[in-house]
Amino acid sequence: xxxxxxxxxxxxxxxxxxxxxxxxxxxxxxxxxxxxxxxxxxxxxxxxxxxxxxxxxxxxxxxxxxxxxxxxxxxxxxxxxxxxxxxxxxxxxxxxxxxxxxxxxxxxxxxxxxxxxxxxxxxxxxxxxxxxxxxxxxxxxxxxxxxxxxxxxxxxxxxxxxxxxxxxxxxxxxxxxxxxxxxxxxxxxxxxxxxxxxxxxxxxxxxxxxxxxxxxxxxxxxxxxxxxxxxxxxxxxxxxxxxxxxxxxxxxxxxxxxxxxxxxxxxxxxxxxxxxxxxxxxxxxxxxxxxxxxxxxxxxxxxxxxxxxxxxxxxxxxxxxxxxxxxxxxxxxxxxxxxxxxxxxxxxxxxxxxxxxxxxxxxxxxxxxxxxxxxxxxxxxxxxxxxxxxxxxxxxxxxxxxxxxxxxxxxxxxxxxxxxxxxxxxxxxxxxxxxxx
Amino acid sequence: xxxxxxxxxxxxxxxxxxxxxxxxxxxxxxxxxxxxxxxxxxxxxxxxxxxxxxxxxxxxxxxxxxxxxxxxxxxxxxxxxxxxxxxxxxxxxxxxxxxxxxxxxxxxxxxxxxxxxxxxxxxxxxxxxxxxxxxxxxxxxxxxxxxxxxxxxxxxxxxxxxxxxxxxxxxxxxxxxxxxxxxxxxxxxxxxxxxxxxxxxxxxxxxxxxxxxxxxxxxxxxxxxxxxxxxxxxxxxxxxxxxxxxxxxxxxxxxxxxxxxxxxxxxxxxxxxxxxxxxxxxxxxxxxxxxxxxxxxxxxxxxxxxxxxxxxxxxxx
Amino acid sequence: xxxxxxxxxxxxxxxxxxxxxxxxxxxxxxxxxxxxxxxxxxxxxxxxxxxxxxxxxxxxxxxxxxxxxxxxxxxxxxxxxxxxxxxxxxxxxxxxxxxxxxxxxxxxxxxxxxxxxxxxxxxxxxxxxxxxxxxxxxxxxxxxxxxxxxxxxxxxxxxxxxxxx
Lengths: 437, 317, 165
Ligand code: NA
Ligand code: NA
Description:
The complex is a heterotrimer. Chain A is mainly alpha-helical.
């Protein structure tokens, strides 16, 4: 148990020295495993994980969902989504920020990653909000927070990895994310309203658009609806009817979605060869850095595992005979604390193997826990000091200090906590849709 | 009361799987009893995927592991002998026969070189579990089925099954989404893979369409480091035939539990093969057997004699 | 000459892009062929594994050369104020590069072992040690790239482009 905790501390130190997360976890895991099992065993385990992780069939969804988001972006869909939301919401106070949230939710329905959602929407929504004199703290915060929806509203790379780690149905996890994701949209709208209520100057109203303008904006979003329907409908088996009998597994849904986005972009003549190559190259680079983190995290979790941390924790829970809700509360506090400093994927990889057996042992539903984990992961993306979505915004926008974004984002993670409490008390909201499958 | 040596047993199967709760749990008890508590074991889960298990043992990351031979195509040929259809008897009979034929014929192939083989076993007969009703062999023609390679794959193509090649953890989602109609597995797996939810129909061929081959392996180095009397006690009382028999019996037990669970589950149906189908399957069985025996012969085994020995052993058990 | 070099430098990313594109098209075709014609691509799962390995590992050196790994840049300001950025960069690059050396060699050993056992892919029948060799070589190149970067920070700081966040 002590070795495991020391390992955590060592990873933290290395990460703060700006050692890439993959290497920090891999190194500590390798050394720790070496102390437990010897030199040859440790290097060999590391080498095997390098070989096997890159060839994991289930992980093929990761690059394919990223690719789908990029093709969609090239097709100009993100711009149209924003225009459509804006046509309906822009004339309210804080309306452009609200439109950003809704467009983020829409983009989340075709993008598997929160960082991609935030990065994409910042390119589209930020210039508009600046044009209308929105305060930087509100405009950047609404994108950073809205972007987090990317991993809750399906498809979601994080849910895929949770499903792989825990052998839980990815299809059910995806479907379970829909209601909590919509709840997130609504609560973020409340957070925008809260911000403009405190500071009316932060979000002046935009221009009102008439009905015909609204309708024409709306008809541009067909591509999003089509892709979402293709991916999620496929999971529900909607197309498995004669004469097409089209059916695909969640793993294959990523390939179908990417191909669909590719074809839509082609059909709209928005995709040049250079664009396509750029999307493919960017996906490969992102996937390679994600896979590096996965390998590092797996090496580290093997060390934690063999050092007996999960067993020690389970034993502790049994020994103190704590009521389940209290254990769950403690776990969530640990998540929120870790989430302040850890990157979302590494946090998931570090903690799920440890907490999952404890949680399911207490009788909690694995699908429900997956959604709860994703919600706390979303929170981690916008809480200081390490909030990756905030960093993405700073990188894309350039001239807004990180501190300003963190300040603006505070009401957003506060409503996230409210959402967390709602989902904890009403698990039915999560389980309603997957139980229909 | 603490043991001198606690062997690290790597397992890639979920903690609740009968390999862990049955085979490994029993093996630990057997080792403790044989050595007066000097040697014990503890399970470590999820260290590496199935094909990496032998490397883990070879390099000392684990002291013991179970391997499924079908996950390493090209490496194991001799082990196909026990995967053949047409043997009569349960997993315990097959596992005992397996160990005996291994000692006499297969060990010479040295396919497990570098590690110590301490148990050979097969799961219960492999059957077809489907989401739409399969009531005869003819219904299998064109059925999209997740089926392994090797002998199972050969039988599958002879039956006209359309192979859907996905890893085992993807079985549930593949069936649920309709990307496959059926899966070929031993009946015991119905519980762990929740097949009573997604594959309500079980077509039951006596003796099965194939059997899966497993070995429990141990680090030779670790074994050599044990005191001589302990080595002797393990070799005589645990490893080899006793551990193989125990493992086979454990697979049988998981089958019994799963048959019971299937009968009690809602909307499930077990269809026993008709006499006609049994006769038809014998022909397929013979074709596949001839092909595999030729492979074994080429690898350097007296294939015919080895095959006859398994048949006889299983009939005599 | 520099044009040729530039082209050579873009080859790994091109290879990765190609692998990813094939993976996408193949998944699509597999689903359609299976659903409509009841004729799935038998080698699809093997191909998926192979294409993923090609995609991930051909760009790994590029990601490393461009400082594209996921990092926490929380302390950047501190290091900058202390004037230690260059030394910090030298440390992290050398650290990562050196750390990869032993695993890269071990991957090669495991590939050789796999060759001695005759391991192949189930349906493609492709010997697995080819994949192992590829991964090993690329991991070694990645290690070399990182070590060269680290040395660059120490001995030729002017040559090193400023890091991007
Ligand atoms: Na999403
Ligand atoms: Na955070």
